[in-house]
Amino acid sequence: MSSLNLNPSAVSELLFSQTGLALISLLLTLFCYFAAKRLYRLHRVWWLAPIVLAPVVITLLVFNLDIPLPTYFEYTHWLMAMLAPATIAFALPIYRERKLIRQYPLTIALGVIAGLLLGMVSSWLLVKFVPLPVELSKSLLVRSVSTPFAMEATSAFGGVPELTAMMVLITGIIGMLVCEPLFKLMHIRTSLGKGVALGASAHGAGAAKASELGQQEGVIASLTMIFIGIAMVLGAPVFAVIFS
User: Fold this and answer.
1) What are the helix (H) ranges across the chain?
2) What is d(CA 212, CA 152) in angstroms, rounded to the nearest whole number?
3) Which is nearest to 210 in space by CA: 231, 191, 183, 226?
4) DSSP code of 214?
5) What does the pLDDT look like over 107-117, one tens digit per residue?
6) Phi, psi torsion values for 44, nearest 5 degrees
7) Averaged pLDDT score across all residues of the chain
């Protein structure tokens, strides 16, 4: 039984060791995400959305607890690794909504092409006329596609996957916040138009917002987001040459 008597100093040393801090980081990340998700279900305000609240709280905790970034990513990088199977899982909604794809092939195709090209051109213009660090400039070019696709495609541009993920997150949040005023300003009233616009410009966050607007909006946004991501990954080597 004596082996069960833990020395408080030993426990403290374990908790504040690199392994202990890495485990605490993983638990904090999961707690913040699920807590934000629950809060957003209760109160549908934009600043409680998990994509907004969780990163802010996690960042504040990491800096205030003086957790080194390599320590933070020691275990949490497995959460990023889950993006790979998530990418493969995108095949499921494509199969489920194949009737909708056949119903609106031209609209979805034009939305994919316009979203992909406008996203890249706007990023290229920003990089061209605003002085930014080289790593950030290269990581910014694929910001308009969903995170798993962007992190895969950014290597062709010489970008840093972690920076790209951050740019994707910021782009999605901005798109989610400004979409409704823009829809009113541009007189976009149809479910199809709203879904394509959100999926093409704000990827995952846009698809989540579209789902709040309506079921068809959410489905169209998801399909548009998926096809743009696939097109970006397949065309990344060519786009890298064009926009280099």
Assistant:
1) 8-15, 18-42, 50-64, 69-81, 83-89, 91-96, 98-103, 105-129, 134-140, 147-157, 161-185, 191-213, 215-242
2) 28
3) 191
4) -
5) 889 989 998 99
6) -85, 70
7) 84
CA gap 103, 114 in Å, rounded: 19
Q: Identify whether the C-beta of residue 139 lies closer than 8 Å to the C-beta of residue 156.
A: no
- Lookup: tokens for 25: 């980081």
Q: What is the pLDDT of residues 76-101, one digit of tens each?
A: 888 877 776 766 777 777 788 888 88
Query: pLDDT above 70 covers what percent of the chain?
Result: 91
Residue 188 to residue 131: CA distance in whole angstroms: 35
Residue that has been written with the tokens 């990491």 in this structure: 62
Inter-CA distances, 60 with 21, 57, 229, Å: 15, 5, 31
pLDDT of residue 13: 52
**Ranges 1-15, 17-31, 145-159, 170-184: which has the least confidence:** 1-15
Task: Please give the single-letter amino acid code of residue 87.
Answer: T
